[in-house]
Amino acid sequence: MSDVRRISIFGATGSVGQATADVVLHNRKSFDVQVVTANSNVDALAELAVKLGAKYAVIGQEEHYKALQNVLLGTGIHVSAGAAALIEAATVPCDVVMAAIVGMAGLPPLMKSVEQGCCVAIANKEPLVAAGTHLMEAANASGAKILPVDSEHNAVFQVFDDQQKKTIERIILTASGGPFRERLEDELEDITPAQAVAHPNWSMGAKISVDSATLMNKALEVIEAHYLFDVPANQIDVVIHPQSLIHSMVEYCDGSILSQMGAPDMRTPIAYCLGWPSRMPTSGQKLSLNERISMEFYPADLQRFRALQMAYDCLDAGQERCGVFNAANEIAVQAFLEERIGFNDILRVNAYVLENCEKFSIKTLADVVNMDNTVRTFTSAYIDNIRQNSKKVYAS
Ligand code: NDP
């Protein structure tokens, strides 16, 4: 790999994408930006493409092609649009790809990036949850290096000694517990989207913020950890750590627990991935130890945080249920953000779908995609049904 790294950023206009751009701009001479992508945000994409000196700007929704082309006229930046263009963009030669699209929509370009055999920094956890086996097998086949961006998995990656894997007793994922950690389920019935997306420690996109509030994010992370590190579910624990300073830990058989610590700022794990195996500076927050800091840890109660129990049950059942869980959740979160269901309904919908949706035979990636589409239809129909039958929160 040369000193200057060719980088593509998928989902460049999102929270992780913007933080990635910030790291790149802070280390300007180390990167040559190839591709930046977005879904519909033309202005932010065009601005980033120019600022980063990207060669290609790709917009997911085809109807925005003309607008993007107009804004970038005369810049020399090549413009394209649509789902196929996103996949094609993943074939542009690169040293490192940042996969920061949200949801299963990121799967096709992510898989294509992995097939190219370069370093792939994955923030986009949903495809890992639904197609973890396929993605890791594709990485083994192509020689791609998978680098976890999620702060918890990035922390584990930093202290996980592959050579000593047999001596690892467990991965301990830390969870802030989200904004409603201290509140009982009954008190959450009327939580609004605005309240749910206001995370106490992290500034993130809407979907992951809601997932953090329901603890679904931690549930998805348990599954993500299983696929990334090839560790069974019974060796992955979650502890509540409200301060989000220790980003996760690995416990070894001699009783040593190694952890990574830092301010809750995504630029740290992003820089770790972009520079790997070297480190690079960021303009992010630094944790000052010159003042008094308290840190608490306590076990996550699986009865209270039901999403976590669902994740363990899904892992016991296999990748197919993990994919069902993910698809149901994406639809339920969207319905909550559109105020079509209440906050507590997100987990109710997930539980119902896990219990009642048909079982799928998953062999190929196409099977994963078909399963995902079917579960989305099933979940949407169920949500329409509960809306019609409910007299309270669902009425819009
Ligand atoms: P955001 O919602 O902030 O950004 C999502 C990005 O994906 C935007 O660039 C958006 O484009 C693009 N996008 C959305 N839908 C599509 C689509 N259908 N096709 C193509 N592109 C699409 O999300 P985050 O940055 O918060 O999260 C991204 C991923 O990273 C998620 O999987 C999340 O779980 C994970 N993650 C996020 C963290 C965070 O701190 N935010 C931390 C750890 C993991 P547009 O702007 O045009 O809508």
Describe this structure in words.
- The chain folds into three domains: 5-149, Rossmann fold (3-Layer(aba) Sandwich), CATH 3.40.50.720; 150-264 and 275-312, no CATH class; 318-390, Rna Polymerase Sigma Factor, Chain: A (Orthogonal Bundle), CATH 1.10.1740.
- Strand 5, helix 5 (107-116) and strand 6 (119-122) form a beta-alpha-beta unit.
- Helix content is 45%, strand content 15%.
- Helix 9 (206-214) crosses helix 13 (319-337) and helix 13 packs antiparallel against helix 14 (343-356).
- The protein has helices at residues 15-26, 42-52, 65-71, 83-89, 107-116, 125-142, 151-159, 193-196, 206-214, 216-229, 267-275, 306-317, 319-337, 343-356, 365-389, and strands at residues 5-10, 31-38, 56-59, 78-81, 96-99, 119-122, 145-148, 168-175, 236-240, 246-252, 257-261, 298-299.
- A seven-stranded parallel beta sheet has the order 4-3-2-1-5-6-7, with helices on both faces. The chain has a five-stranded mixed beta sheet with strand order 11-10-8-9-12, covered by helices on one side.
- The chain contains 15 helices and twelve strands.
- It starts with a strand and ends in a 7-residue tail after the last helix.
- The chain has 396 residues and is of the alpha/beta class.
